[in-house]
Amino acid sequence: MTKFKDIRAAAEARNGGAAALKKKLPRPKSNQALRATGDDRYLSSMSL
Fold first, then answer.
1. pLDDT tens-digit profile of 9-48?
2. Taking a C-beta distance cutoff of 8 angstroms, is the pair 19, 9 a contact?
3. φ, ψ dihedrals at 4, nearest 5°
4. Assuming Cys at both sites, which of 14, 22, 29, 43 could form a disulfide with 33, CB separation 3.0 to 4.6 Å?
């Protein structure tokens, strides 16, 4: 199995470095935003 650090290093190399890769990644939602999302939305996302 490929180690995560190797996968990350490859992604950074393909995307212009760690900072450039970080800019492309989505920002995680806050705990409050996650709690405000209804169960039906999570279930809907899992069924895609």
1. 999 999 999 999 999 999 999 999 999 999 999 999 998 8
2. no
3. -60, -40
4. 29
At 11 the three-state DSSP class reads helix
Please name which of 33, 15, 32, 36 lies closest in space to residue 24, comparing C-alpha atoms.
Answer: 15
Q: Is 16 left (phi over 0), alpha (psi -120 to 50) or beta?
A: left
DSSP 15-43: TTSHHHHHHHSPPPPPHHHHHHS-HHHHH
Please report, for residues 4, 8, 13, 15, 40, the alpha-carbon distance to residue 24 in angstroms, rounded to integers and kept in the order given.
18, 13, 13, 9, 28
